[in-house]
Amino acid sequence: MSGFDLTDRTALVTGGAQGLGEGMAKALAAAGAKVMIADVQDSGADTAAALGDGHAFVRLQIRKMLDVNVLGTALGLKHGLRTMRPGGAAGKGGSIINVASVAATIAFPGIAIYSATKSAVDRLTKVAAMEAGKLGTGVRVNCIYPGLVPTAMGAGLANDVAEIGLFGSAEEAVGAVIELTPAGRLGTVEDMADAVVFLASDASRFVTGAGLPVDGGMGM
């Protein structure tokens, strides 16, 4: 993992029970942050416990994709900014990193609603960054655009587009993604987690309102 220092900082990772979120939680904890995992899955408690003392879990409400990706991001921004701004519960500024997707930048078949919600995450990020700066909150707001990662969710996506006949098989769908990716491979959880740690650290202190592609070039 990266060498960025997040000692004495607290990170909230929504969707941190498994997959990319779990990897990001582990990377943030390894960099010194205390991590709160929020998820619809109770297994998030086990993930938090595995990180060690000082880390915790809170269960979210179950909502549909639109509510999770758009409303969830908007609420996270609202409460994150209120907490970290001067006079807030933390009041020391900080960094908010939203997770969009390469699907927000390309037209890949079979994921129209998902793509739309992740495009909304991108817009919410940029507007929040502008507002946070103008209001003097001391909070930076950025997002990443992950490429396809072979997590449970990534595998489910490949199966879904194959089942509706867009590809002959899940393997063919994955092959199509790799073919569109100049780096010639799928992403890894570590690829995404390192990007999040960078945006959370002071190494990115002059970066806000940015969407960082972590997609092997797929979305360029």
What does this structure look like?
The structure is a single chain. With 220 residues, the chain is of the alpha/beta class. It is built from seven helices and six strands. The chain has a domain at 65-147 and 187-214: NAD(P)-binding Rossmann-like Domain (Rossmann fold, 3-Layer(aba) Sandwich), CATH 3.40.50. Helices cover 44% and strands 15% of the residues. It has a three-stranded parallel sheet, with helices on one face. Strand 2 (34-39), helix 2 (44-51) and strand 3 (56-59) form a beta-alpha-beta unit. Helix 1 packs across helix 7, helix 3 (65-84) runs parallel beside helix 4 (112-134) and helix 5 crosses helix 6 (170-179). The longest helix has 23 residues, at 112-134.
